[in-house]
Design a protein that fits this description.
With 125 residues, this protein is an alpha+beta fold. It has helices spanning 17-24, 29-38, 75-85, 99-122, and strands spanning 6-7, 13-16, 49-53, 69-74. Strands 1-2-4-3 form a four-stranded antiparallel beta sheet.
């Protein structure tokens, strides 16, 4: 059993990178870690990232690796990544992205975000 999703005071749900990897299915935990560290994907999609301090107590002493924070990514960002990557290169889902792939994902991201903004302005979900 992993760490449960974190819900902030505004009701926004945040997932660990391992949970996000399970949801997206087309990227590894390490790839997500790099994207979260940068705050965006290679094609320019900004990700909502949250770092929370790792809590320790007497029953659970700190690990020897000295991990001082845990990275969370918003469920909205995870679902958007899943939608963008779901039908992208299904024959090679885990291979490196080419320049053409990045251009395609950048265009697709712009169109998807524009479509969501229009739907939000019209009150449609």
């Amino acid at each position: 059993m992993g760490i449960p999703p974190y819900t902030d005071s505004e009701g926004k749900v945040w997932l660990t990178l391992t949970e996000a990897e399970r949801v997206i299915e087309h990227v590894t935990d390490q790839t997500l870690r790099v994207w979260c560290k940068r705050g965006r994907t290679p094609w320019g999609l900004h990700l909502e990232v949250l770092r929370l301090p790792t809590l320790h107590n007497d029953r659970h002493p700190p690990p020897p690796t000295r991990i001082d924070s845990r990275v969370f990514i918003s469920r909205d960002s995870v679902l958007l990544l899943k939608e963008l990557l779901a039908d992208h290169r299904p024959e090679h889902p885990n291979s490196r992205l080419t320049k053409d792939d990045l251009d395609h994902l950048e265009t697709r991201t712009r169109l998807l975000l524009k479509k969501r903004r229009v739907a939000a302005n019209c009150g449609v979900r």
